[in-house]
Amino acid sequence: MVVHEPHKIKTVRPLSFPTLEERKKLLSQVRFNVWHLTPTQASFDMCSLGTNAMSQEQLSGQLIGDEAYAGSRNFETLEVSVRGVLGHEYVCPTHNVLGCVKLVTATMIPAGSAVPSNARSRADVFVPLGVGYPDVRDAKEQVFTGNVDLERLEEILKGQNVAFVGLQAFADGQHPFSLKNLRTVRALAERHGKKVVCDGSRIIENAWHIQRHEQGQADRPVAEIVRQIVKTTDVFQMDGAQDPKSNTGGILTTDHPDIHEKFMNEVVVYEGLHTYGGMAGRTMEVLARGLAEMCDEAEVHWVMSQTERFTGRLREAGVPLERGCDGAYIRADEFFPQIDKNQQDTFSAALYLLSGVRATASGLVNRNRLVPVQIPRLALTNEQLDAIADAIICLHGQRDAVQGLRSLSEGKWRDQQAYNWVFPDLAPFAFETFPYEIHTIERVAVLTRGQREKAIREAGYNTFLLRSADVTIDLLTDSGTSAMSTDQWALYDGVRASASGSDEHHRLVAVLRDMLGYEHIIPTHQGRAAEHIMSQIMIKKGQWVPGNMYFTTTKLHQELAGGIFIDVIVDEAHDTRSDFPWKGNIDLGKLKKLIDEKGAGSVAYVSFEHSVNMAGGQPVSMDNMKDVYTYCRSVGIPVFFDATRLAENAYMIQKKDPRYRGVTVRDIIREMMLYGDGCTVSGKKDFLINIGGLLAFRDNRQWAEEAEELLRIYEGSISDGGLATADLAAMARGIEEMADDRYIRWRVEQTQYLGRLLTDLDVPIVTPPGTHAIFLDAKRFLPHLDQDEFPAQRLAAEIFVETGVRAMERGNVSKGRNPETGENYRPALELVRLTIPRRVYTNDHMAAVAEGVKRVYDRRKEIKGLKFAYEPAKLRFFQGRFELLQ
Ligand code: P71
User: Which one of 387, 622, 828, 838 has the fewest CB atoms closer than 10 angstroms to its CB?
Assistant: First the structure.
């Protein structure tokens, strides 16, 4: 079975991809020491400290810091988390783990004493302070390489003046200990009257290894193992920026009141007060929530599976590395056997030059030979990690071409190094991945099959009536379901709200004028509001409105205005097996015939939809737009686009029309819009917002004034159309983002990927795959069902039961009954739509969807139909309820 994230993406942060020339320039600016680059100068920044994606609940904690100096509520939350998750009674907050070390040093290490430890990384701190730091790691142990050599420890306990035994969970990022070893160490220390102090910043990774590899631990949840580790230590400390996924902060916990008292008395000297310890209130809240979430079994397994996959791919390709708890630690000296100096920083510089990936060693210069390539928790997709591994493999293949960095100045610490370099001539490497990192996630439901059967039965076999909380992968619609970017959020939060003119409105108008080339910009609260106004001002009763297939709300408003919709899409659009690339095109013959018959005066306008939704997300060609417009202009009929999915359509033109291969999507959009006189848009799709819409006219002031008149009555002011000012800000930014070539290519190609997976599995879908959705052909999927047994409705329900994926029926139920005959319409297309939200799901989710649908397909013969249990008169697909036919 395909493993996928137990969450979906809530907010994305755009990545930057500097060109080779920019990378060369930046490298020389930082004297070839990539430590000094910034994340926006890198493609991927492979560091796991404080770079993790949070859950939306954790992030929301950031907004409820009470920032009290003493006795803050956030501290109380932290206490509850510590007691509940770690099991220790007392907690002392610190600014980060160095704050913990400082307090422990001040209170527990008498001058001249030593701290035997299984880790080397704290030598940076202890050695300058004059603390002895003997290594007691068991070098012979193979699996639990962080175990303590008990004989050696005993020797030291007897011989030296030991302060306490200092352990690290997953020592130095590479060496986990076992529970058994930990317990023995504790007993041994106790016999010598010494305490055990443990740094558990990576306790989760260590606990996972125990669950995986230690005898008798396989069936215990990570949470239980974590608690046992903590309770086996006397003092436990954590860096908030590691497993608790905060951006900073630290905690020092214990069950010994006397030790805690000493911490409290010292914390005021170095850190702050015992109820905030050098952390902002909000940081305590984020840390507390992160602690409470960090043992989530599904999340732990997902994070660790990413690490295993990443290191596995590198190891298989022969890249020399050591296991890291959070990534691969490259053995730089073996990577570049021909180089005798500065191998680590040479690796970092060469990897950045090749790919823009930043991975760097830190701390003391001569600590080891490794470069950690760490995976920020939850922030990257497997697709991205595979590509990053490929970059390293690609460099490894060209390692002979690389000369070592020459030192200009040598320091003690990594950040002090500066070099000279001769650029190697490397074969180019380019990323074609999801162009974002994950900023926030939202956990999704994982129900048992039995629970899903109950849920769909209670929903009357109608996916519209399912609770979102019961859905694992929600492919009901791409409308309003996008993940916003951090840039959109920043503007949203920074807005100065107004009920009249606003900066955001001006910005939106400017962005749209530039993007569309249209003069008159009228925001609406969503698409159907724009359709309503457009129809009211442009249609006279009894007029025809030809269009390329209909959309429900569009057609409804045309009819409410007294118009008669008529479908003039090409015939191929109705054939689910046709491979015609422009199935969204208008059949000019049909259009001319209509106008010849009825006369130009009886046609209101041509309603021209981009990337036609009901046809399967099928694009319109540039030539077709040009031809339709040329003809309509000659007969004096306006052309109005439904530009809801204009960027997706533009990408298809870039991809399929060789004349536009090198043209940016932004320029293609601008040309497309030239061949029309105005447009309506549901901004909830391509505009990358959760609410919003648009009505726009190219240059006809009179139409715009009439539209604004209705806007004031039905929607809101002319400067907001009924939207919050903050939503205008998010929309303006979303419109810029939709035309980013990397984004839109990834977006449409993800849909194509799902289509390919399904066709490879022989599942019948509408071909070619569209831009926003894959449509399953229920007539071919369940050929043994009559259309009045609602095969698409049943198939959507069955897919939910099998996989937790929610799809939408688009067939006999949606089309309704013919009011004259009372019979179901039995439309040609009996489809189930798998609609892909933007920036929300990864390709692993897509693979899981395909696999699940295939399982349903394999047992299709046993699937029976449905009958109505309750049938509303209007739009019955929303509220209708069904029963299984026996
Ligand atoms: C979709 C939707 C949302 C929807 C609407 C009605 C029933 C079920 C689902 C909405 C569109 C659209 C096009 C091409 C106008 C609208 C209405 N699509 N034009 O596909 O696809 O816009 O929802 O913002 O009012 O799930 P609105």
Answer: 828
Question: Measured between alpha carbons, how far is 185 from 24 in angstroms, rounded to an integer?
Answer: 51
8 Å CB contact between 773 and 617: yes
Bridge pairing between strands 808-810 and 831-835: antiparallel
Q: How many residues does the chain have?
A: 886
CB of 556 sitting under 6 A from ligand 1 = no
What's the 672 CA to ligand 1 centre distance in angstroms?
21
Distance CA 445, CA 472 (A): 5
Q: How confident is the model at residue 305 (pLDDT cuts 50, 70, 90)?
A: very high
Helix 150-159 with 179-191: angle, nearest 10 deg: 20
Atom of ligand 1 nearest to the CA of 772: 20
How does pLDDT run across 810-854, given as a tens digit for each residue? 999 998 998 899 999 999 899 999 999 999 999 999 999 999 999
Our answer on whether the CB atom of 609 is closer than 6 Å to any ligand 1 atom is yes
477 CA: nearest ligand 1 atom: 26
Residue spans of beta strands (DSSP E) within 302-369 = 321-324, 327-331
pLDDT of residue 445: 87
Lookup result for tokens 């005021």: 268
Q: Which of 76-85, 196-205, 409-418, 593-602 has the lowest mean pLDDT?
A: 409-418
Measured in Å, how far apart are the chain's first and last C-alpha atoms? 31
| Ligand 1 pocket test, candidate residues 613, 691, 815, most atoms within 8 A of CB | 613
Q: Among 608, 620, 682, 627, which Cα is nearest to 651's?
A: 620
* Pocket of ligand 1 contains residue 266 by CB under 6 Å: no
Alpha carbon distance 535, 532 (integer Å): 5
Q: Hey, whose CA ends up nearest to atom 27 of ligand 1?
A: 527
Is ligand 1 within 6 A of the CB of residue 233?
Answer: no
Our answer on whether the CB atom of 552 is closer than 6 Å to any ligand 1 atom is yes
Residue 527 Cβ < 6 Å to ligand 1: yes
Token code pair at residue 258: 């006397």
CA of 553 to the centre of ligand 1 (A): 7
> pTM of the full predicted structure?
0.96
882 pLDDT band, cuts 50/70/90, is very high
